[in-house]
Specification:
The chain has about 210 residues and is α/β, with parallel strands linked by helices. About 40% of the residues lie in helices and about 15% in strands. The chain has helices at about 10-15, 30-35, 55-65, 70-85, 100-110, 110-125, 145-155, 165, 180-195, and strands spanning about 45-50, 95, 135, 160, 170-180, 200-205.
């Protein structure tokens, strides 16, 4: 690391596979299309493309399994600042991370999505709320499941813990990676039911379907 570099060197940053989805109109955004007919999403963004055995997978594994929380904060800050530069901060009132079940939180020691939310909040210069959503049921890992299995696994396990924090507000729902979108879809649905005026989605990475 050179002086001034923060957790990710400039050389690696230059070679990351950026999506630039935030530059596309919603109708042309392939990420937004994943949610069509399932749950109304105002915006859908993802910073990087997730490729197996690639740089992004390595970074996310460091964040999720190796205790490198600052990776999530730094990437979130970079992307949040880029979204703000394009005026997208004006579309949101509050940033909400996807929650972990208390059992998994106790085992891991932190929620990687909180790190991402903190970074987005810094970059977008918006508030975030770690406890707006709650996961009520401990579920098995989503990693090897089909989309239908993933949906069934999470369809009824989220609830809004603080309805007053989301009612009438434009929520930016954030997570580390989007695969099928089942978890984000379930979270968005309960936020809208609780009275959020709109829900948008942003992740650090997305996997191609």
């Amino acid at each position: 690391m050179a002086r001034g570099e923060n957790h990710i060197c400039t050389g690696c940053r230059a070679q990351l596979p950026y999506t630039d989805y935030h530059l596309l109109p919603p109708t042309d955004n392939p990420l937004a299309r994943r949610f069509w007919g399932k749950v109304p999403i105002a915006h859908a963004f993802s910073y990087l493309r997730f490729l197996r055995r690639g740089r992004v997978q390595h970074l996310l594994h460091q964040l999720k399994y190796r205790g490198q929380r600052q990776v999530g904060v730094v990437l979130g800050e970079w992307y949040g600042a880029e979204l703000r530069q394009h005026g997208l901060h004006e579309s949101f009132d509050l940033i909400v991370p996807v929650p972990l079940h208390p059992r998994k939180l106790a085992k891991r020691g932190y929620n990687q999505s909180d790190c991402v939310a903190e970074g987005f909040a810094n970059g977008l210069q918006l508030p975030w709320h770690a406890y707006a959503l709650r996961r009520t049921t401990h579920t098995s890992s989503q990693t090897s499941k089909t989309r239908l299995e993933r949906w069934r696994n999470v369809a009824t396990v989220f609830e809004v813990a603080t309805p007053e924090s989301v009612t009438g507000r434009r929520i930016l729902l954030v997570d580390d990676v989007l695969t099928t979108g089942a978890t984000l879809e379930a979270c968005a649905a309960v936020l809208l039911t609780a009275g959020a005026s709109s829900v948008s989605i942003a992740t650090l990475a997305c996997a191609d379907r």
